[in-house]
Each structure stands twice: as C-alpha cells, then as structure tokens.
Specification:
Helices cover 37% and strands 15% of the residues. With 171 residues, it is α+β, with helices and mostly antiparallel strands. The chain has one domain: NADH Oxidase (3-Layer(aba) Sandwich). The structure holds flavin mononucleotide.
Length: 171
C-alpha cells in the first residue's frame, strides 16, 4: 500500500522556530490552491484567508499573539469563518463554519509540510484585537492564525498520541 498520506501526516508537526527567510510566492499559491479545494458543508465555502506578510500586517498579527517564536515567521495566514455564509443544520441550527474552516486550515498545514514548510495552528490569540486591527466585517470570525515559514529546528520528536484502542471502537 502506498503510505503517502501517513508520511505527510507524520511530516506535519507544530513548528515554533522559523528561519528568517521569505516563503516563495509560488509555494504560497500552491498551498492556498490546496486550501481552496477543501470540502465544506453544502459546499458553502464559508471562509476567508488573509495572507499577512507586509511589515504593518505582521506587526499587527504579532500583537494578537505575543510570543517570541511567533514573531519569527515571515508570513501568517489568518483563517476566518463567515457565519453568514456557513450551513446551519436545520434540525438544531448547529453552525458548521468552524468545522469547515478547520478542514481548510489543516489542508493549509499539510500542503505546507509537503512544500518543506513549517506551520503551527494558533487559536490562543486575542480575537477581539484581531477583529479591530484588521477591520474584519461582523460576520467574519478569526478562527486560527497559521504562521508559515522554513523550520529552524530539528526533526520533531515522535508524536505523542493516544493509541488506536483508546480512540477507536468497533461496534
Ligand atoms: C485547534 C488548535 C489550536 C491550537 N492552538 C495553539 C496555540 O494557540 N498555540 C500553540 O503554540 N499551539 C497551538 N496548537 C498546536 C497544538 O499544541 C499541537 O497541534 C499539538 O500539541 C500536537 O502537536 P503537533 O502539532 O506537533 O502534532 C493548536 C492546535 C490546534 C489543532
């Protein structure tokens, strides 16, 4: 069996140290094309992605998540959910925007890993400040920030994960 996906899933890990070199535009375009192809509930594609690489934008996003390692990234993707465009399940009104954006965001991280780039999901940021600094429309919720850059660290330690027996049950 071709283990391509397992290899990529192993390759992707949270990178918290970046080299001070830019990411090629072609690579960002390839990554965002992989994001664009993500599935979403009822194909609503309720998302918007801001690529932040200008000095002003970088300074702004760094204020939203004030960590030394985070500042090293040459580019950030601000992943937003559009709650007006998303599918709400009729039987109970459940909003699927977060799920859709999460899938697209992981496409981003996996595609970046394929390109030899590091990423890290960041959700522990100041969302209110982010809305204000980037003047997000009311329907857009900033869900995650993903720094993207060339890793400046050694290969990752083995994944610490629950076993299959712990997370899976055959019925
Ligand atoms: C939804 C989500 C939110 C996360 N938020 C943060 C964060 O704010 N800061 C951070 O350093 N890592 C964050 N992470 C990274 C996790 O800590 C990391 O994925 C987890 O420890 C597993 O490690 P790995 O990504 O290297 O496999 C987040 C991950 C996910 C999926």
């Amino acid at each position: 069996m071709n283990k391509f996906f397992a290899t990529l899933a192993q390759e992707r890990h949270s990178v918290r140290a970046y080299k001070p070199i830019p990411v090629e535009d072609e690579k960002m375009t390839y990554i965002m094309e992989c994001v664009r192809l993500s599935p979403s509930a009822v194909n609503r594609q309720p998302w918007k992605f801001y690529l932040l690489s200008s000095p002003q934008a970088r300074t702004g996003i760094q204020r939203c998540y004030d960590r030394p390692w985070f500042q090293q990234a040459p580019v950030y993707v601000l992943c937003c959910a559009d709650h007006e465009a998303s599918w709400h399940r009729p039987c109970d009104g459940k909003d699927h925007a977060d799920i859709d954006v999460a899938i697209a965001t992981e496409h981003l991280c996996l595609a970046a890993a394929e390109c030899g780039l590091g990423t890290c999901w960041v959700c522990n940021f100041d969302a209110a400040l982010c809305r204000e600094l980037f003047r997000l429309p009311a329907s857009l919720e900033p869900v995650a920030i993903v720094p993207v850059g060339y890793p400046a660290e050694e290969t990752p330690k083995p994944r610490q994960r629950k076993t299959l027996d712990e997370i899976m049950e055959r019925l």
